[in-house]
Write a structure and sequence with these properties.
Strand content of chain A: 15-25%
Largest sheet of chain A: 8 strands, parallel, barrel
Number of helices of chain A: 15
Helix content of chain A: 25-40%
Radius of gyration of chain A: 24 Å
Structural class of chain A: alpha/beta
Largest interface: A-B, 34 and 34 residues
Number of strands of chain A: 30
Oligomer: homodimer
Chain lengths: ~575, ~575
Amino acid sequence: MMEFRVWAPRAGSVELALAGERRAMTSEDGGWWSVEAAAADGDAYAFVIDGDELPDPRSPAQPDGVHARSRVVDHGARTWTDAGFVAEPLERAVLYELHVGTFTPEGTFDAAIGRLRHLRELGVTHVELMPVNAFDGTHGWGYDGVALFAPFAPYGGPDGLARFVDACHAHGLGVVLDVVYNHLGPSGNYLGRFAPYFTDRYRTPWGDAVNFDDAYSDEVRRFVVDNAVGWVRDFHVDGLRLDAVHAIFDGSATHLLEELTREVHAAAEALGRRAVVIAESDLNDPRLLRAPAAGGYGLDAQWSDDFHHAMHAVLTGERHGYYEDFGSLADLARAFEHAYVYDGRYSRHRKRRHGRPATGLDGSRFVVSLQNHDQVGNRARGERIAQLVSPERARIGAALLLLSPFVPLLFQGEEWAATAPFRYFTAHADPELARAVREGRRREFAAFAWQGPVPDPQDLQTFVCSKLDWSESGREPHASMLRWYRDLLALRSREPELGDRTLLHTRVRFDEDAGWLALHRGTLVVVCNLADVERRIGTGAERRLLLASGVARVEGEQVILGANAVAVLAPAR
Amino acid sequence: MMEFRVWAPRAGSVELALAGERRAMTSEDGGWWSVEAAAADGDAYAFVIDGDELPDPRSPAQPDGVHARSRVVDHGARTWTDAGFVAEPLERAVLYELHVGTFTPEGTFDAAIGRLRHLRELGVTHVELMPVNAFDGTHGWGYDGVALFAPFAPYGGPDGLARFVDACHAHGLGVVLDVVYNHLGPSGNYLGRFAPYFTDRYRTPWGDAVNFDDAYSDEVRRFVVDNAVGWVRDFHVDGLRLDAVHAIFDGSATHLLEELTREVHAAAEALGRRAVVIAESDLNDPRLLRAPAAGGYGLDAQWSDDFHHAMHAVLTGERHGYYEDFGSLADLARAFEHAYVYDGRYSRHRKRRHGRPATGLDGSRFVVSLQNHDQVGNRARGERIAQLVSPERARIGAALLLLSPFVPLLFQGEEWAATAPFRYFTAHADPELARAVREGRRREFAAFAWQGPVPDPQDLQTFVCSKLDWSESGREPHASMLRWYRDLLALRSREPELGDRTLLHTRVRFDEDAGWLALHRGTLVVVCNLADVERRIGTGAERRLLLASGVARVEGEQVILGANAVAVLAPAR
């Protein structure tokens, strides 16, 4: 016998639909309903709320899609081979973001396992999976999740995810999972039929906000915290990346993020593992990272978009949209030395002051990238940096990223300058929704017509063309880019000074007019010439070359760099 | 010549209307417009935004109402007699909340001055004025303010307010001013015609939220902070009471409340004065009070509704609305020992957990009351506690309030058990708005029909009957209640142990079934018998009587209290 439970505090009657039968469930304290029934792994079931049959809000599997019956899953029945595995701490982490559906031609967890050796050899420490929660349709980015506890069936469902994590661990790789707690997708979201999961107190760009502080919010918070803890406990993940926490509105005295982080940490610790909580945050607010004793939420790290934008604007020269706030070498220097470029400064793009200094927080608290799913995918045509700038400039970006004092994140295929774009793709069955998404996307990019025509997110080809072509990685010019990434990551892990995460120890010198920048990491220095002509750059001490891209020659304490060259220098012996 | 300035970042043209002329204003950086013109104190002016003549958002005076032209006011021209005055710190403060329009028959600042001696003799240290900002109509509570910098003309305008504050200081009384930064009133609010003062990102019970974190919010924040600082600088007020800060939504890294408090403190300090910032907060969140170094906003104090509700529910036996969360002596004991009764506990009324422990914060950080404008006025018929319970029970409430470790606040007339109710009254000229308010009020109290018919807020009589009848205060039974309040306040200021604000030193013993409660303040003890029969209560040591209401007799370490009696006991000599 197995106990089925569901929270439906305002329902008049709740039944369990199992096989051909419906059984009345018993109302319990706090709006919960329960019933015992004979059921086994894989059995289909649903809850019937006042006569309407609906999938379980906490469904562990939706093999037939998000509208169909849920399936019983016995997480305890799985065999794991990862006893004793502990992921690298963030101080030594290099993340690799991948989207299961486009990472391989097959688009499954099992196919992705075949590429783990590549990742290990590349030098990354963690895979970061874009959301794997079930969403409507056959493919999509995953941020439209509606069955938050059910790994997406086309990827391989719960067993596929478990096999993937176990294989990552066997390869010495940790797994960070992208989870979305700020909204639910537009199709297949039945939560509101069960309980007040949503509130109209706040507005998100994607509709009603999740109810984290209004009446009945305790159980909504529990739903989210249990989800977070479940990934750690049942799927052995080593960390969570929380999507857009600035759209998680919570005015209560203990913010959801503080509660969630505390519980995730505690759950991992109780299991003898480590699990980190990383936020995507648009707030530049160090409160997320500070300890609860200092009034913070205690998260382990946050994404730092300022770093990306400062780098992207310098490398590409683009100044549209939010890039209008960036573009100078001074901004890039601030990103290296202070993490936040906007730490209380006036932002032209936001038309207000933004952020607060991250004083005292070290580089292991900030995940930085040159490319990620958002920055690539949220362009009209999903171009990667290698499609926007010369290979030489892309290499400068890689060097600054991977030799930074922060936690670098690579985006799938970045390491070999993959030619596949990463476009925004959806597969909504509902024609109304499909039209809304298509038109919304067009409207969004109306102001950026120079980026070219906007591909239709609903066109299957938009998805298919975003899949990586792994055959490239062995061919030039991709193979040499791959060597560059490997060399940089090897250097990062070999040189103790590159392991120093104290931002106060990071110093950047630059000449805005001459177009060069030197990143000092202890006695090492990464010198970049962003100009289109050769530059002679002083480095303050006698040097020798450790690694270079392009023309680089050392003369005493000076380095001569060709146009768009970058060199890593150590003190002369 | 005088400079006129206004912020109108999206206006195509702005003119100054002064006397019979309109002069073009010059566009400056940041959306400001300015012009110099010859003008003197009292001159009427307006700004013309794209052809529409509107009062100044920062108007210092609106003698002809909130829709009419603004007036020039030279704050520097006033004579003050309060040099060197510094208000009592909150540790020693007793606040007295008054509504200028009903405190005296005349309803003016000048008439209120005539009652300051009464307040001083009563033993209060600060007057707390309900909002004096200009609002539409001839009378009202003041929370519908629209000209936030202009003291309400019917009360006496800016000069009247200045005379009142100066007179308070001459009587040794500080002045705390109630200010409303969470919304603006429904009539005469022209701010949106000037700039994006409002946002639809958040929902308040009173309409659009003020824009504290969206585009253009820097100047909106400046508007509010300048307003707060202006009361201190131009009107010498000694503190601000911020209305409903839980409806001040600000997701930015530095919360408006932190910025405002820092600036108010700094402005007062620069002037050699002291100004406190007190929040009305429904959050039970100690972050408001903690120091910025500990991740807090650094406010001086907050209202503690939990104290009121715990006391009210015990004294009256009422359990409707939010009182359903209170009613036990255990709750009242928690209020005394921990300030927040709900510090993470589940609240039935809110249908969620609420609050967070206020660990380490002392009693001077919490303003408590037995009655205040909200708790009296937000009943259908505006009854005071003395209309709801026997005089004996009201005296118990007064003793617990005034001998508590917190900052007590009295509501006008409470000290003599005034018979005037304090009802919700408005004077909206717009018939639509008048109807909406009338019907809204009726709807609000539909569930509380037992409170009696809901008076019409628009009926002049609803306002008039809320005015205090001062002749009562010298007559019995009012005179003896007044003596009781005076005696309690005298005791509070005389006994050093009652000045101890450390909540850890406060201990409450009670017997829920027998209905008695003993509040220990050092070696002193306040013992209340809330039962309808005599009780014999142990006090742990030989005692003598300091003060009592009702039948009270000491026998060794025991006190015998008649029904609804209260006694203050000291150790036997």
